[in-house]
Amino acid sequence: MSEAFTQIDGGPLDVLIIADHASAHVPADIDLGIDPALLGNHIAIDIGAAEVSRMLAEQLGCTAILGGVSRLVIDLNREDDAPGLLPVMSDGHPIPGNRHADLSDRMMRFHHPYHHQIARLLDGMTSPFILSVHSFTPQLASDPQAERPWDIGVLYNEDDRAARIAIPMLERAGLMVGDQLPYSGRLLNATMNRHAEANGIPYLGIEMRQDLVTSGEGQSRFASIIGPIVLQCRNSLA
Question: What SUPFAM superfamilies would the database entry show (predicted)?
Fold first, then answer.
């Protein structure tokens, strides 16, 4: 067990599901100085990501690794030297407890163990494929007029091989798909850049719209759509 991550051992298939922002947990010895109600918001957690990842691990018979702490404690989807690792502001909300926090301590306690475990899991696979699971809000509190109508987004940096397979399949399943939307993977793709693109490992990066995966029914729907697509991508590329 580790406070940095939760690992789900669903079976031997060489697919690793990674959900960086799957948890809203804040350890008892860390005070962010915020209203606890904010821990149920997107600034703290990717709503639905953990549940869909668990369903997919069981459905596919593969391993999933879920980030163990809120992105407000440390953002696991940031490079080691990125300014957003320890957020002092998120979507208009100040995080005063992070202003004088020890970044090196948070990195050693959470960020490094999480990424080292991902590397270990991938090293143990013969022909790995990665599914990166995130979710996004229908609108940002800091920009409520900007519409984000997509049901799901597909993100990537330089390696778009799986994206090209997945996007038409997602569209045929009846989803409105954002290609590099609601934002571009060329701007924010740290975990996949580190573990997939840097090592030539094929991957699919998805962003589900949160209001569609808040319920068990919605989570099951997305897992049932995404699972066969992951297998198709993996069988074609891995």
Answer: Zn-dependent exopeptidases
